[in-house]
Structures are given as structure tokens and as C-alpha cells.
Amino acid sequence: MDMKKYILSLSLLTVINSSAIATTQEGEEAYNKGYYEKAFILLSPEADKGDAKAQYLLGKMYYNAQGVTYNPEKTEQLLLASANQGNVDAQVLLAGYYWYLNTPEGYKKAFEWYQKAADQNNADGQYGLGYMYDTGTGVPQNSDTAMVWYKKAAEQGNSNAALAIGYNYDTGTGVKKDKTQALNWYAKAADLGNASAQYNLGLMYEQGDGVPKDYQKAAEYFEKAANQGHAKSQLELGYLYDSGKLGKSDLQKAAFWYQKSADLGNANAQFNLADMYFYGDGVGKSLEQSVYWMQKAAEQGYGKAQNQLGIYYRDGIGVAADPVKAYAWFTAAKNNGFEKAASNVSDLEKSMNPEDLSKARTLGQQYTDNYKAKK
């Protein structure tokens, strides 16, 4: 073979490969900036040529409906093509795709791809394997094997794995209960920014669970998680300010954090916020807002809120008095296990005429069916 032609061919191949890499990199940069249409245009031809990174990114776009319509067939096709070339990010995402099919076959495939990613020392793959063994999903449950994979992932800085180890020690799931170990692993996860670990640490310090009770430390951890949008931490932080456990109670801060949590749908926070509007604590008194948030909590099956909403309708507080709705909400609260509501039901029915009572019982059953307590 002519050496000049060989060198020329090699140089041309290098130029072509460099061009493909550059185009994929441009596509990835566009994707990372949220310019999905541009990313799609740049990545599509490279994916068609077999570029694993381009296939992964396009598969991810179809999976997350980023700039394109969600398409499970395209998702699987592209991720599978990339994963089979050894792209570990595609392997992990493909495993997740199969996991959420929630079928025996899906779990089997999820396990296979998590295993392939884990074999490449990928922390997310290792965590995925650990979780499947921990929960016995798609494989026989094996706590010891789960902990092996969790620790491999945690050693690489996977915060969810560190959280899982902490939780298992905290609850004695598959291991002997050990609050010191739980604290240590939660702390590792919390230091990595894991909001759930920060919340769990906050609870331990708030309740004195395995550590001396320390409301200030609890508040610090709750606030870290709350600033990440963790609704339960926002609720707990609101409670610490509300109750005065951090010193003098600060009702404005309490209302602020209850509002944050309520906006994220936390029923307890919605009830507490409704209560603050009722009394004008930390916020301007507003019966209208109190009713609004009380109903939000009641519709999530929160029995205490359902009972309180019944009182509002019975007594005409912030709403027109309506014994039928009052009875219905009391009934829902009673059926959701709020014991005080039972006497409200029996007391109210004594004063109701047969026609209204019949309507109230029908509506009460509807509320019970529609607004059940969350498990």
C-alpha cells in the first residue's frame, strides 16, 4: 500500500472522527444549557452514525420529554444502542427505564443493566443493585449483599447509598440496630447534600434519638434540607420556631416555613398554616385563608383538618353555615381515625331534620371515599 495514501486516509479518518466528536460535544453543551431543539439537531445525525454519547443524550431527551414528545420506543432503542457500546450513563438510565415499567421482566432487565454499570465501578449502578437486593425487587432479598453494594457506592460519594446504610442501621433493617452507625452514615450523606439524610439527622437531634437532644443542631439540619425544598424539614423547622424550642417563639418564621411546606402539599403544614390564619399568629388574621388551607389539608385525608373544617361549616366560621357539609366532614374525619369527630357526628345529627341527615350521610360517604388518609 502507498504510504502517502495510507497517511492521507488516516489523516482524513482523524478529521472525520474529530468532527463527529466536536459535533457531539456541541450537542451536549446545548443540552446542558437547556437548548433542546439545537441539541436535537446536532445530536441526531451523530446518533444515527452510532455515536454512543449522542445516542445516550437523545435517549435521555425522549425519556424526559426535553424538546421532544416522550417516546418510550425511541427511549429504549437509543439507550440500548448506547448501553451496548458500554456507555455507563446509558446503562444506568436504561436500568431506570426498565425499573419503572413495574413488571417482572422490567425488573429483570433493570438488574442486568445495573449490574453492567456496577461492573464498570459506577456508583449509581452499585446503588441500584444494592436497592434491588435490599428490597427484594427482581431478585431474592439479601441484606448482606445490599450492604456490600451500598458501601461500594457510598465510598464513591453516592449520597443515596450512604442514606440507605444509615436508614438500615437506624431501623435495624437487615442489620443490628446501631444509632451511632446510623448517625455516622446519615452525616456522610448529609455532608454530600442529601436532603433526606439532613432531615433524618434533624429528627435524631430533635427527638434525642441516639444522641443528646439538641434543638439548635436539629434546626441547622432541617434548614439545610428545607432550603432544598424538603417539605417535611420545612414543617419541622416551622414547628421549632412555632413552639419556642429555639428560644423565644418566632411566629413569623414559623408561618414562613409552614407556608413553604404547605405550598409543596404537606397536609400537616397546611393545617398549621390554617390555624395561624385563624388566630392571626405570624400572619394577618384571615378566616378566608384559614378555610382555604384547612380544606387543602382535609382533602388529603388529614382527619384533624377534616374535623376542624366540619366545625367551620357547623358554626359558620369563614363560610356560610352548612350542617350537611359539617356532618360530612365530621364523618370523613371519624372514618379516618380522628376519634374526637365521633361525638361531633352524634351531636350534630340530633339537631338535623331527616332530609338533611340523609343528604349528609350520602355526602359523608363520598368525602370518606374521596379523601382518605394517606398511608
Automatic annotation (TrEMBL):
Name the enzyme group at the top EC level: hydrolase
- Has keyword Protein transport? no
Q: Which SMART domains does the record match to this protein?
A: SEL1 (SM00671)
EC number(s): the record gives 3.5.2.6
> Where does the record locate the signal sequence feature?
1-22
Extract the SUPFAM superfamilies matched here.
HCP-like (SSF81901)
Q: Which GO terms describe its molecular function?
A: beta-lactamase activity
Gene3D superfamilies assigned: Tetratricopeptide repeat domain
Q: In the UniProt record, does the keyword Signal occur?
A: yes
Q: Which UniProt keywords apply?
A: Hydrolase, Signal
**What protein name applies here?**
Beta-lactamase
Lineage runs: Bacteria, Pseudomonadati, Pseudomonadota, Gammaproteobacteria, Legionellales
